[in-house]
């Protein structure tokens, strides 16, 4: 803030170089806005004919038939939501646990190396998760985890439907698990920032009252950080929604009708685009795929904005700028 | 929460009944401690599992041919991924030429001209670009460059896609580290009559040098592993190519192609590529982490 | 160690970039947008067009052995993309061709749909597809008259992976369409057992693996299924991408073979070579004459023999469910797609020389890689097509 003051103080003395420099960086900054506008404009432009042709039914039907040129993205939207939800259900609790461990439990000397290790998960490229998912995780899920789930949870009424059907080794559950691993570092890192923003006086108060550590966390830390942790989860969700390669390699890429079972192969919006984009050989097919990209773009933007609002509410200032 | 409030609030001497409650509280505490510790361990264990598999499966692929030869026709054992490694480095370099000035410039704008009305809009834009699914970036660059301006798949299109991935990462880091430069430094320079632009370039930026470098390296590491946008833009190439206007191979795309092939030798090469990629990115992350230790909070 | 390696490479790259910036003249992006007005869209090139071409050569050039080294003035790089069905052959071709002539032909197997789209948008120098373009697709192309150049023949193998079953399985049109329609879901379905009484088929669910990308292999396969099953024709139809009733999708012939290999009790369809190289089970198919046939060079050639004489002038043809006694029923021609009016002379020369080499010298690779050579009648028709390619009104093929 001081620099603005100094800037305005010297505003009268701005020389040619200053003006040029200001225009240059302003130009670059405005360039990013132009870029985003161009992205939206071009994507919308190519999606237009499909949107005009199918209207709202593009979002509400699950037919994807390139032969008859009838397109509805519901199955892809469903696949995206289901895999992201599975990812969040698995990664959410684990991430909050890991963040708590890093802020409340671990000795100081171990804190940095440990959080570095978990953050390393965030720099592993998507393609490597895909490779690992395809050759290591998928066979493990197919041969051990999924038969186990089918024999146990699969027998329970109602939720049993989630674990029914043939086990193919490529399905939405595996995609969800891979996504869970991928968003784990994001949710952990942001939760950790949020937890660190909780004032120590909160903790000290509880401890002084004789609370156990968990009671302190439960009574003083978590309520304070609740909104921020929700924001962290939504930020993880944002990452899961747009993830492409890893999901494409394990989800099974099949656009057949929506089924309640997590064991059915499916498509997410991103994997559908990756698989079919360079191959859409009719105008309408192409336009429909770009329309999927448009929907994905809008959903990702909305979720990102929501996440940032939630995180900012808790942790403001440079400390809270844990943006990933 | 409710139970703990009451017990903690009640205080006073311990009766036998309260002793039992204390026991239960201790038990819950221990249980949660274990649960929380296990959560953290899961993260580390998964990381180690991935790294271990990449190293074990990838190491046998690494030999001189792997780094110097081009891929062989289908089903033939041998050859390497040299065009892909070179292509990735090449496209990263060009992406840096495009993305670093934009990213650093925008970061300077957000930090040094933060008072303007445009700044929040720019910051919001950067957040949105950062949140763009990379496949959508691919669709955009395809529509702009592959279909129109260049007219065909090209390394240039791939570079532009990677640059778009890099910009928000660089901008955010630069903004953040420039904000940490004390205002007194700027004031001192300005008081000496140094113009503002020279103050920023000669005093502020150099002070935050290592932070800016971190941002650039992190962005490179992130872009270097991108696959999805390259599928739609740089396409791939089994020959060496240094012409930016021609299709260009990239290591992540090569890994994808090899992984989805049915040949055992190609699977090994996919793991080998993964090992090279992960080792490069891991070392870069570690080095920047060590280099900037103590300069940034956290 | 990696670190140092990378930075030193980056330094080297700086030099390379500078070098490349001065060397971009080899690519001349085609700028002329509108397609040729002289031909009605969708009209097919015929052999008679060849005579109207003001060619430098008189008489028909020799076949094999004509192209034996570099040619001055031809482009050093060509880019193609498309079908995965002939990718095994093409990568072999282009690897050897690069050694012979120094021309590097980059081929990316992204699927036939992708090949059609890429050549239609002119984002590549040539496309490749196992599915001939439909009349509608031909109208949509942006570079004028598009030629279909057949390069080889191949069969689509029905491939499966059932642990414990070693006997070669037999499939009829009914069982095959039933499996892919999802009406036959278990391996011990009575219909399957009737054809394979002593195979010991298990009671497991059938895992159907199909293509997730736009595929000429899919086109041939669905063309066959539509031919033999009215249910399939009405519910799914023919195309490079179709709305699959069941199963999981994998990208490319590579992906489907990998999917079948990795999933027990699965069935899929791939170009024959992919099944052979992966040591997967290959089914015997009941053909039109009522015999159970193995996909092979001979049986696929027999399927093509019938059509060779009567093939349409534009060389678009379907050879599924062919009548011969030993004709393999799921077979097809695969095509390279190029524009008749080329705009870049260097590329046009390189392209026509490569194609000439491919349909003559290149045919010797076909059988060892599991394809079938083009019948002689078709080769001479393809020669006419290659000779009809022009650049700036001149015949593009230099005759040697």
Commentary on this structure:
The complex is a heterotrimer of chains A (about 325), B (about 300) and C (about 400). With about 325 residues, chain A is mainly α. Chain A has one domain (about 40-315): Orthogonal Bundle (MetI-like fold). Chain A has helices at about 1-10, 15-55, 55-60, 75-105, 110-125, 125-150, 170-195, 200-210, 215-240, 245-250, 270-275, 285-315; strands spanning about 65, 70. In chain A, a hairpin with a 4-residue loop joins strand 1 (about 65) and strand 2. In chain A, helix 9 packs antiparallel against helix 12 (about 285-315). The longest helix of chain A has about 40 residues, at about 15-55. Residues about 1-10 and about 315-324 of chain A have low confidence and may be disordered. With about 300 residues, chain B is mainly alpha-helical. Chain B has 13 helices and no strands. The model of chain B is unreliable at about 1-10 (pLDDT under 50). Chain C is built from 14 helices and 15 strands. Chains in contact: A-B, A-C, B-C. Chains A and B meet through helix 1, helix 2, helix 4, helix 5 and helix 6 of A and helix 1, helix 2, helix 4, helix 5 and helix 6 of B.
Task: Annotate the secondary structure layout.
The complex is a heterotrimer of chains A (324), B (298) and C (400).
Chain A: H1 2-9, H2 16-54, H3 57-60, E1 64-65, E2 70-71, H4 74-105, H5 108-123, H6 126-151, H7 172-196, H8 200-208, H9 213-242, H10 245-250, H11 269-276, H12 283-314
Antiparallel strand pairs in A: 1-2
Helix pairs in contact in A: 2-12, 4-7, 4-9, 5-7, 6-7, 7-9, 8-9, 9-12, 11-12
Chain B: H1 2-10, H2 16-58, H3 64-68, H4 82-112, H5 118-131, H6 134-149, H7 155-180, H8 183-191, H9 196-207, H10 209-224, H11 228-233, H12 251-259, H13 264-291
Chain C: H1 2-21, H2 49-52, E1 77-82, H3 87-101, E2 104-109, H4 112-120, E3 126-129, H5 135-140, E4 146-161, E5 170-171, H6 173-181, H7 190-195, E6 207-211, H8 216-228, H9 230-235, E7 248-250, H10 252-262, E8 266-271, H11 272-277, E9 281-282, E10 284-286, E11 292-293, H12 297-308, E12 331-339, E13 341-342, H13 345-359, H14 376-387, E14 390-391, E15 394-395
Parallel strand pairs in C: 1-2, 1-3, 5-10, 6-7, 6-8, 13-14
Antiparallel strand pairs in C: 3-12, 4-8, 4-9, 4-12, 10-11, 14-15
Helix pairs in contact in C: 13-14
């Amino acid at each position: 803030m001081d620099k603005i003051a100094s800037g305005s103080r010297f505003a009268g003395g701005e020389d040619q170089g200053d003006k040029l420099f200001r225009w240059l960086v302003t130009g670059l900054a405005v360039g990013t806005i132009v870029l985003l506008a161009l992205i939206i404009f071009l994507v919308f432009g190519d999606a237009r004919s499909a949107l005009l042709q199918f209207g709202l039914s593009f979002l509400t039907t699950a037919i994807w038939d390139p032969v008859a040129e009838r397109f509805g993205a519901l199955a892809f939207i469903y696949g995206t939501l289901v895999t992201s939800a599975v990812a969040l259900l698995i990664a959410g609790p684990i991430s909050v646990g890991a963040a708590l461990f890093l802020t409340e439990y671990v000795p100081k000397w171990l804190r940095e190396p440990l959080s570095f290790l978990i953050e390393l998960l965030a720099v592993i490229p998507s393609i490597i998760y895909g490779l690992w998912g395809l050759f290591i995780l998928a066979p493990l899920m197919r041969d051990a985890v999924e038969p186990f789930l089918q024999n146990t949870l699969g027998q329970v009424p109602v939720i049993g439907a989630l674990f029914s059907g043939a086990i193919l080794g490529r399905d939405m559950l595996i995609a969800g698990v891979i996504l869970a691993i991928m968003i784990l570092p994001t949710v952990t890192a942001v939760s950790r920032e949020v937890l660190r923003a909780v004032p120590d006086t909160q903790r000290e108060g509880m401890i002084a009252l004789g609370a156990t550590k968990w009671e302190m966390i439960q009574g003083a830390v978590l309520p304070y950080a609740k909104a921020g942790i929700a924001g962290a989860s939504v930020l993880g969700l944002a990452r899961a929604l747009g993830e492409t390669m890893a999901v494409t390699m394990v989800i099974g890429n099949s656009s057949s009708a929506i089924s309640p079972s997590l064991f059915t192969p499916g498509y997410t919006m991103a994997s559908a685009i990756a698989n079919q984009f360079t191959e859409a050989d009719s105008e309408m097919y192409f336009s429909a795929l770009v329309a999927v990209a448009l929907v994905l773009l809008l959903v990702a933007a909305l979720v990102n904005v929501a996440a940032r609002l939630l995180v900012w509410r808790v942790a403001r200032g440079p400390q809270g700028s844990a943006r990933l | 929460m409710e139970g703990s409030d009451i017990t903690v609030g009640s205080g006073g001497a311990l009766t036998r009944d309260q002793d039992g409650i204390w026991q239960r509280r201790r038990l819950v505490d221990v249980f949660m401690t274990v649960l929380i510790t296990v959560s953290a361990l899961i993260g580390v264990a998964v990381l180690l599992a991935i790294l271990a598999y990449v190293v074990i499966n990838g190491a046998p692929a690494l030999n001189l041919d792997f780094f110097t030869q081009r891929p062989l026709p289908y089903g033939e054992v041998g050859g390497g991924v040299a065009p892909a490694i070179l292509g990735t480095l090449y496209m990263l370099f060009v992406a840096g030429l495009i993305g670093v000035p934009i990213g650093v410039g925008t970061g300077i704008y957000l930090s040094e001209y933060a008072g303007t009305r445009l700044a929040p809009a720019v910051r919001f834009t950067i957040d949105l670009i950062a949140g763009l699914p990379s496949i959508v970036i691919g669709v955009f660059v395809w529509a702009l460059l592959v279909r129109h301006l260049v007219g065909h798949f090209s390394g240039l299109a791939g570079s532009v896609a990677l640059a778009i991935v890099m910009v928000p990462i660089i901008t955010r880091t630069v903004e953040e580290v420039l904000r940490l430069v004390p205002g007194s430094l700027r004031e001192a320079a300005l008081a000496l009559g140094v113009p503002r632009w020279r103050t920023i370039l000669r005093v502020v930026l150099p002070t935050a040098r290592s932070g800016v470098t971190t941002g650039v390296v992190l962005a490179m590491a992130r872009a270097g592993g991108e696959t999805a946008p390259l599928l739609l833009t740089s396409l791939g190439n089994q020959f060496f190519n240094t012409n930016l206007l021609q299709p260009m191979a990239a290591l992540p795309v090569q890994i994808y192609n090899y992984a989805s092939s049915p040949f055992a030798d190609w699977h090994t090469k996919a793991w080998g590529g993964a090992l090279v990629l992960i080792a490069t990115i891991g070392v870069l992350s570690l080095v920047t982490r060590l280099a900037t230790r103590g300069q940034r909070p956290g | 160690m990696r670190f140092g390696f990378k930075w030193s490479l980056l330094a080297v790259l700086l030099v390379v970039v500078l070098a490349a910036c001065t060397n971009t003249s080899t690519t001349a992006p085609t700028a002329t947008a509108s397609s040729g007005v002289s031909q009605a869209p969708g009209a097919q090139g015929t052999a008679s067009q060849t005579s109207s071409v003001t060619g430098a050569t008189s008489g028909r050039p020799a076949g094999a052995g004509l192209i034996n080294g570099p040619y001055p003035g031809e482009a050093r790089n060509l880019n193609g993309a498309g079908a995965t069905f002939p990718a095994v052959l093409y990568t072999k071709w282009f690897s050897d061709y690069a050694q012979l002539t120094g021309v590097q032909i980059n081929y990316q197997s992204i699927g036939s749909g992708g090949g059609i789209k890429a050549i239609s948008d002119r984002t590549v120098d040539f496309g490749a597809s196992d599915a001939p373009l439909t009349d509608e697709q031909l109208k949509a192309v942006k570079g004028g008259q598009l030629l279909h150049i057949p390069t080889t023949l191949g069969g689509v193998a029905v491939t499966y992976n059932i642990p414990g079953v070693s006997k070669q399985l037999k499939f009829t049109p009914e069982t095959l369409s039933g499996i892919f329609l999802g009406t036959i879901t278990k391996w011990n379905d009575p219909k399957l057992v009737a054809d394979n009484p002593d195979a010991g088929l298990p009671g497991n669910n059938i895992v159907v693996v199909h293509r997730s990308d736009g595929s000429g292999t899919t086109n041939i396969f669905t063309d066959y299924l539509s031919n033999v099953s009215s249910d399939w024709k009405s519910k799914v139809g023919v195309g490079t991408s179709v709305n699959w009733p069941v199963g999981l999708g994998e990208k490319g012939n590579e992906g489907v073979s990998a999917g079948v290999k990795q999933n027990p009790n699965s069935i899929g369809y791939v170009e024959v070579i992919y099944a052979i190289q992966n040591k997967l089970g290959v089914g015997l198919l009941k053909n039109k004459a009522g015999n159970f046939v193995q996909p092979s060079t001979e049986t696929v050639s027999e399927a093509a023999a019938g059509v060779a004489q009567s093939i349409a002038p534009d060389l678009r043809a379907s050879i599924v469910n062919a009548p011969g006694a030993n004709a393999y029923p799921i077979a097809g021609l695969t095509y390279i797609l190029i524009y008749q009016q080329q705009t870049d002379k260097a590329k046009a020369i390189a392209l026509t020389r490569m194609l000439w080499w491919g349909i003559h010298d290149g045919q010797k690779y076909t059988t060892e890689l599991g394809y079938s050579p083009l019948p002689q009648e078709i080769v001479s028709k393809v020669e006419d097509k290659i000779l009809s390619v022009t650049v700036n009104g001149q015949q593009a093929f230099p005759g040697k």
